[in-house]
Design goal:
Helix content of chain A: 10-25%
Order of helices and strands of chain A: HEHEEHEHEEEEEHEEEEEEEHEH
Largest interface: A-B, 51 and 56 residues
Low-confidence stretches of chain A: none
Low-confidence stretches of chain B: none
Shape of chain B: globular
Strand content of chain B: 15-25%
Number of strands of chain B: 13
Distance between the termini of chain A: 17 Å
Radius of gyration of chain A: 17 Å
Mean pLDDT of chain A: 93
Strand content of chain A: 15-25%
Strand order of the largest sheet of chain A: 5-10-14-15-16-17
Shape of chain A: globular
Radius of gyration of chain B: 20 Å
Largest sheet of chain A: 6 strands, mixed
Distance between the termini of chain B: 26 Å
Mean pLDDT of chain B: 96
Structural class of chain A: alpha/beta
Oligomer: heterodimer
Chain lengths: ~250, ~300
């Protein structure tokens, strides 16, 4: 089966989502958006993709999350009041990416360096409330590099396994935080209140390659498993929607 | 023709752009409607740049793009309450990024919860609005906008202080002369901004009759009493999309991004100066602007599949 690494990331994420769950994907998010659409067309027909457009029946994957063409066959339209309320009330899942991601699953989309003189001014995080209030979230990044995967983020846009320095379990009402971190090299999981651990390495990727591109020591299982490859059905469904090949480029 | 049930003496809110924005002062707090490059009040914002308004405070939508970045690049902004500012798949917002790295604009690290909570407080004449999620993480920490209230029984509420815009600039698709606004797609934070701001100016792609509005009242998204002025500006969201009317102009946005990025290497960049000249200071009115961006052919292409 021929597939790109982005398509692999989509299938890994899609398999995590359950039937009848409600989730959000955020802006500029072709990978998680496609994961939801794929899950709906395979094992989770009742999954609801919410946001400013509720449950688009997208026939084509568009690069902008707010594209009008997502609205035309949706089940409902929402505005920022709906999103604001839903983000405090909580949903099942959300996806986050960042300019820095650390071993505790903290995500930084705001800045690298001090506020007075950042080395990189990031775009900032539109919705970070769901990192607190949704049941679980998935971290993903289209590049796995040392500069991104750092021991400690410079700014916490979305808190990971610890919230304000405390394990999430101590703040019982809130979401349980990062579930997985999916990159072009591997799938990482998180222990409650703890740090990132490798769950599986993608086919063809070596442990050395993964460790070299990560800015903190990774926990090495004795025999790291290999990430399950996309099936023919998954790839065929996915490409039927990604007609312009947004996920075909590496 | 159906006879109007409205008194013929009822005043029209349709104004020319100069009249609608005549009382705007330097240092004003301005809210921008839309979301990233969708339904942006782009023509209204270009007019502000032409008028060389300065020291603005921006309350953009939770995800902002062209209008916020252009105002920053033109040197019109002193402070921005920034959630997400980017051009989504096209990349970072160059002027926003540069302003953050050089410290030329006060970037208040905000998010959707802080911006919408702050606007809801203003809309309800409250000093602050409770938002539990703002107690966690770093966003809002240095904003000076987070307040903690403690009840007599010791229970604590975290809230965001009111964000009150002097002016909301909004782009929608249709309005009647009494200021009743109709969005034909997403309304984003526009309705909240219209309730929060002291003054509301809406540009629309087309005017419809009050009779049309009364025939389909469920389609009115912002009732006219909240609106101070309607400016008829067909294609007034360009280069952003206007939902249900035209798509965003990706080629133009990429040219914009290239011009803005050139400021990184050279702060006197000729290509940025050219962009401002070609699309802001050069065209005398909207019709000249529309010719400059590619005329009828460009408009036909952008309309395909979205109206």
């Amino acid at each position: 089966m021929n597939y790109t690494v982005k398509e692999l990331m989509v299938t890994v994420l899609a398999r995590e989502l359950n039937d009848n769950e409600v989730g959000y994907v955020g802006a500029a998010a072709a990978i998680p958006l496609m994961a939801c659409l794929l899950a709906q067309r395979t094992h989770a027909p009742g999954l609801i993709l919410s946001g400013l457009v509720v449950n688009p029946r997208a026939e084509v994957l568009f690069p902008s999350a707010f594209d009008y063409r997502y609205l035309t066959r949706a089940e409902a339209w929402a505005d920022c009041w709906d999103i604001f309320v839903e983000s405090e009330r909580g949903v099942d899942f959300m996806f986050y990416s960042g300019i820095q991601i650390d071993q505790r699953g903290n995500v930084n989309l705001n800045r690298v360096g001090p506020k007075s003189q950042p080395r990189l001014q990031g775009p900032g995080m539109g919705n970070s409330a769901l990192g607190i209030n949704c049941r679980r979230f998935y971290i993903y990044h289209a590049r796995h590099r040392k500069e991104t995967f750092v021991p400690e983020v410079d700014f916490i846009s979305v808190p990971g396994t610890l919230v304000n320095g405390r394990p999430r379990a101590e703040l019982a009402v809130y979401g349980r935080g990062p579930e997985l971190c999916v990159t072009p090299l591997a799938v990482m999981g998180f222990e409650e209140g703890g740090t990132m651990r490798v769950k599986s390495i993608h086919p063809g990727v070596t442990w050395e390659q993964l460790q070299q591109n990560t800015g903190f020591p990774l926990d090495s299982p004795s025999t790291p498993s290999v990430t399950g490859q996309p099936t023919e059905e998954e790839i065929s469904v996915l490409r039927g929607i990604d007609r312009t090949g947004l996920l075909r480029s590496d | 023709m159906i006879a109007s049930s409205d008194n013929s003496a009822r005043a029209s809110k349709v104004k020319a752009i100069a009249e609608a924005l005549a009382d705007l002062q330097d240092g004003a707090v301005i809210s921008l409607g839309g979301m990233t490059f969708h339904n942006e009040p782009a023509a209204l914002v270009r007019y502000l740049v032409k008028r060389r308004v300065s020291r603005l405070t921006l309350i953009p939508p939770p995800s902002a793009a062209y209008c916020a970045d252009l105002l920053i690049g033109a040197g019109a902004v002193a402070r921005i309450y920034a959630g997400h500012v980017s051009f989504e798949h096209m990349g970072l917002a160059p002027n926003f990024r540069r302003a953050g790295e050089l410290g030329t604009v006060d970037i208040v690290e905000a998010n959707e919860a802080l911006i919408i909570g702050g606007l809801l407080a203003a809309a309800q004449n409250l000093p602050a609005y409770p938002v539990s999620s703002l107690a966690f993480g770093d966003i809002g920490k240095t904003s000076g906008l987070i307040k903690r209230y403690r009840a007599e029984d010791g229970e604590e509420l975290v809230a965001v202080k009111a964000l009150k815009p002097d002016l909301a600039l909004i782009h929608a698709q249709q309005a009647d002369s009494f200021g009743n606004i109709r969005h034909l797609g997403g309304a984003f934070a526009d309705v909240i901004m219209a309730r929060a701001a002291r003054k509301v100016v809406v540009s629309v792609d087309e005017l419809v009759s009050p009779e049309q509005v009364r025939k389909e009242p469920w389609r009115t998204t912002i009732p006219g009493y909240l609106v101070d002025a309607v400016v008829e500006l067909p294609w007034g969201a360009h280069p952003a999309a206007s939902h249900g009317r035209y798509n965003y102009d990706q080629d133009h946005l990429r040219d914009y991004l290239a011009a803005a990025q050139s400021l990184r290497k050279d702060k006197e960049s000729a290509s940025w100066a050219d962009y401002l000249q070609d699309y802001l200071f050069g065209p005398e009115d909207l019709s000249q602007y529309l010719e400059r961006i590619g005329g009828e052919r460009k408009r036909a292409r952008l309309s395909q599949g979205v109206n």
